[in-house]
Amino acid sequence: MPSRLSRFLFTAAAFAVASSFAPAAGLAPLSSLTPQAEKFHVALATPTYENTPGQLRETADKTIRAAEAALDVLAKQDPAKVTFDSTIAELDRIVAPVRNVVDRIGLIQETNPEKTVRDAASETSVKLSSWAIALDYRDDVYRIIKAFAGTKPTLTGEEKLLFDETLRDYRRAGLDLPAAQRTEVERIRKELTQLTTDFSNNINQARGPLDFTAEELAGVPASFLESPGVKQPDGRYRVMMNITWHWQAVIENAKNENVRQLACRTRYNLAKEQNIPLLGRIVALRTDLALKLGYPTWADYQTETRMTKNAATALKFEEELVTGLQKKFDAELATLRELKAKDTGKPDAKLEPWDINYYTEMLKKERYSVDAEQLRVYFPYQHVLTGMFHIYEKIFGLTFTEVAPPQVWADGVRLFAVTDRATGEPLGLFYLDMFPRDGKYNHFACFTVSEGARRPDGIEEVPVASLVCNFPPPSADKPSLLQHEDVETLFHEFGHVMHLMLSRAKYSRHFAFGVPQDFVEAPSQMLENWVWDKAVLDTFAADYRDPSKKVPAEVIDSLKAARKATAAVFYRRQLSFGLLDLMLHTQTDPKAALDVAAATNDVLARVSVAPPPDTAFAAYFGHLMGYDAAYYGYLWSLSIAQDMASVFEASPDKFLDEKIGRRLRDEVYAAGASRDVSISVEKFLGRKQSTKPFLKFIGVE
Ligand SMILES: [Zn+2]
Questions:
Q1: Residue 179, SS3?
Q2: How many whole angstroms from 526 Cα to the centroid of ligand 1?
Q3: For the packed helices 115-136 and 53-75, what is the interaxial angle rounded to 10 degrees?
Q4: d(Cα 416, Cα 327) in Å, to the nearest integer?
Q5: Is 123 tagged catalytic?
Q6: Closest by alpha carbon to 645, among 532, 481, 487?
Q7: pTM for this prediction
Q8: Contact at 8 Å (CB) between 101 and 88?
Q9: What are phi and psi of 431, to 5 degrees?
Q10: What are the backbone dihedrals phi and psi of residue 428, each rounded to the nearest 5 degrees, phi first?
Q11: Residues 6+ positions from 416 with CB-CB distance below 8 Å
Q12: One of 90, 216, 252, 493 is an active-site residue; which one?
């Protein structure tokens, strides 16, 4: 139920440094925009954030009590007099505020500076989520919904969609089944909740400490060795294979092959003992559940509500890409192998799984002279932020106004109001919480704070979002300087903020992130293209020491060439993850004794690179919980993203084209999930979808 989106399918580097940014002084209060909001019958308000464990518990209890009371009223109405509004729409209205509370508490859990508050928020989240699952099984509510369905209503548009989705949810929960089977379905769901939590906890608790001397770590950047906690009292360096940025520092840079090998084996063995048997049990239970609910496989159950609609479509999409990339993949591996032969002086050197990242980095540096560190001078944080704001204001026809927030959870958190440039109508509010601090969420993501809603009195409550990031904080003599990759992340995450701000659906369920899971990333993935375009970069990127210096065209060209040179290795790896996920979840016999470790390693070996023997990558692959039978969606949505980007590219002002931007706002963002997203995409494209731009992007054509 929490709505949080992040571009990172894997954990990114984090900075464990406290920030000390004072809130901007002299800003007008949020209330200064109230008269403007009233003109448009809009409520422009931020929620009140709970600050103590007691307040959190009280909110959870109050929320559940209010929802229960409303559900009792819904359930007790006369079945002979039911209407769409008193049943389907009312259920949507009852659930929406609970979702808002869950989202707000999710944000508190990840951002409050006090550990006791974060822990209480986490406990409260679990309580609310369990309540939400139990809601599916309230017979009295289901009976009333069915009573309305029994009237065979003639519905159209958003109402028809909401009606179908509500009944589908009940069917998917097993409410249509005879009592005994339904109890069994509920039991399996509960067991799965427990087992999947265990799997994730085993991942969180796995540690892979490896101690090396400075000599053994030759090649690893000094900035990493100097990071807090790395240097040990005995003079050696401790790298933790469970921390992704530690792992990356070693696997991408360590010159010593034995060190890389040890790192790789350790990482691929994390949580193996506990999670391999657990994964086997989870896969069997999912298969069993799917069969009981009338689906051939778990992947068919999961994809039913997505764009692919069934497992076969997802599988076909992935397998065709595997084939399409074969030639380029073989050629890239040959290049990396030659590089290793030259580097080691052994003409017959064999490329091992622990070599891929290392020689990919070497290739980027040597052949394409791409040095991410040197690019930082063009991307001082404040310039990038302001520059990005101007671009999004321009293409979507908006104005962003910073206001003094009524309440913040930490120093330096800023608040902005989004208004329509043409009419002045306030559309939404977003926070920026951009720098690291102790105990804060350590990736980059857009959090939903509140979806916005239409009150019974007709007043529109605006949506509220928060961008939670971890950019390097400024130092005494230097501003915060971003990597090109960070700038890309910012453009992506802010795309999610826009999606929420510009969503205009009638029912809560159809708001922004209610779109299918294999589509939700597409608009943001599309916006990543902006930072690879010189015209866009020239609007804000400049050397902070001499702003007349722009990013040279050759640098952008080499960045693109480097990306292309290793695209097949990168995407075949993505495909191997997607396919091992689909392989596990297209099992048809819950009793079959599947050797999970061997079967998943086989997929990796066939599609990407064979992992070291006796390792079990899948044991540490957290996406198998919560993102199960969904990993393919990353490339599925990227395909749509590149198709949409091609429309901007072909327009007169390219990525800065206001007419195309406006069309995206109206047809994709505003529509949200209130209609089939394929229709929204085609209305934006002005034609049928095409995979050509995507195939070109990943190097298939
Ligand atoms: Zn994202």
A1: helix
A2: 10
A3: 10
A4: 49
A5: no
A6: 532
A7: 0.91
A8: no
A9: -100, 155
A10: 180, 175
A11: 400, 401, 402, 403, 429, 430, 431, 432
A12: 493
